[in-house]
Protein 1
Amino acid sequence: MSNNFDFDLFVIGAGSGGVRTARVAASQGKRVAIAEVSDLGGTCVNVGCVPKKLFVYASQFPELFHAGEGYGWNHSNQATFNWNTLRDNKSNEIGRLNAIYQRLLKDSGATIIQGRAKIEAPQRISVNGQQYSAKKILIATGGWPRIPDIPGKELAVSSNEMFSLAELPKRAVIVGGGYIAVEFAGILNGLGVETHLIYRGNQLLKSFDSDCCAKVTEGMIKKGIKMTLDTNVSSIAKCHQQLNINLDSGSSITADMVLYATGRQANTEGLGLENTKVTLNDRNAIVVDENYCTNEPSIYAIGDVIDRVQLTPVAIKQAMVLINHLYADDTAKLDYTNIPTAVFSQPELATVGLTEAQAKQQYTDIAVYRSDFKPMFETLGQGSDRTFMKMIVNKTNDKVIGCHMVGHHAAEIIQGVAIAIKAGATKSHFDSTIGIHPSTAEEFVTLK
């Protein structure tokens, strides 16, 4: 490789995809730089998956305390919650992970550059006024929360700010119907916040199986979340120390905080793409081919910034495919079918494969199996949660083409089911598998 460049590969963005690409390329002897304007680890580590899951755990304790009474545990003293403790302990854990990312990058031989990178030309980048040249550039800048342009938008917060609030609000309005909105609704409600969820559509989580969406919505309402669907927010106004959230229906809600969780967009602003042939689609995401190359031959992009499947494990897989393309035999490709995913709502949702609606579009003859039951934990715990499972089968060849679950440990269970579906398991394979009893998971091998 030519030594006329400062680096063989310059990575912009130290999230999951960028870090994996930089680490692997550097460990193979390539001269690699990685630039990051914020903390190492990207959205997932700092303002996404990791802190969110910690907050979900925290919000579940009130229900566990209540369930404990049915199992003989007597709580003589009222449990109290301290937001500062949770927030600060979370921050300490994130700091630990940031340090791990830094060590992994340094140990691989990659050069870490702190600052905002801008592409000045197809093979030239500037950071903090310093110019660098690179044979290849990778854009892995992820996504960014999007708040629509309504009067008072500056009074709302996004998911980025939710993990470092100075204090927990007493009343909150969440705007949105996707996974971020429903997850934060569960978190705030569990932590004792009066929680309102407002969504312009008539169904939450509309990209998921409709039966599961209905079960999640039903469970959220049972837990005390106040739901308003088919409604838009027209404006937000501050009145003394409170916020008035005005709806297009003519009514309004008073709250201490408004969280907008109406989607994320590719983080491409200020990258200097106008200095290249890189093009964007109508969602502002970078257009790439199957090898993640843009219209500029020296520039590549992976992760949320290309708007394929916005999941951390997907970005990491894309990184490995890219490394194979750049520095190996170029045979690796990423299969986007049957990617399992979970929504850490309360109740929890996890899924792999086709929804019932998708299956009906693709196949002429399908069988749908459902199960709806009260989990064993709730019998003595006296909670309201139920478990819902759904399996979709292509009757032509008996293959399982979709599995969906709402309830306790849905993500843990569906992860194992996803392996079976990826391997081409049939309904007969599931039926002939001995279940683990008593467990929730065994229901998947006894569906009739």
Protein 2
Amino acid sequence: MKFAVIANPSKYEVKEVMLSTIEWAQKNEVELFLYSSVAKQLHLEPSDTLTLTESDGDSIEAGEIILVMGGDGTILYTARIGKRTEKPVLGINSGRLGFMTNIQQEDLNNALDNVLAGDYTLDKRHFLRAMDKDGEKYHALNEFLFTRKDTTSMINISADYDGNYINTYWSDGLIVSSPTGSTAYNLSSGGPIVVPGSEVLVITPINPHTLTTRPLILKADKPLTVRLEDQKSDILFSYDGVIKEIDEFPYEVEIVKSKLTFNLIQLQGQNYFETLRKKLMWGQDSRRTKI
């Protein structure tokens, strides 16, 4: 079997995880594909088990399963460069929180054994798709973000849903989040946690001036149009951290759920609410002995 490895060498635990994976692959006659630049940073040499490629994209193309070593940022990077492959992805946590990279190093061998045996299900996470007036498309697994740049002035952002006017937000910015991204910037900005697989998107204003302005959950099968007029503040548009500076106004994008999916491997016994409790200490109460 062939596994692609997408690794973030800046994470201090990645080399140890990679060495353990190579050792496991040798024992199980699995071929690993790794970008040569990453291998160089980790001081790894090619072997019968480890094949070096010219890019992460080439590794994804060569593998049947994708192993992602790092944090959720590495997952988002993998989603961006491999969004059309829809190959199964196993996230191995070498970062901090790791909502989607939830396999810990101590569970690595057992997780790889289960993947090799096909003992897993797929947690299909839909991308959101934004399209501007020129027909250019952007995809985000977590969120689209509209925010001010280098200023303390608030910005005005208008939103329509399925042709109906919602609101003009006067705020520091606006987040349009998928269920997957609901535990990211959306949560930090006071937005709700949404169970993955829900056919919705979340609109969350960032520090709105009006106290009555609250996050809004919408069905994702109808278009949400976000519109920005020229104003004193420079404005940035980003998709999963990739930033585009808006320089022509009015600027308008239409956002809907994409048909593309990112297929996370879910092993037996894994549960989203358990992840919430472990990663966010969700619902913990020091007065209780058991969560």
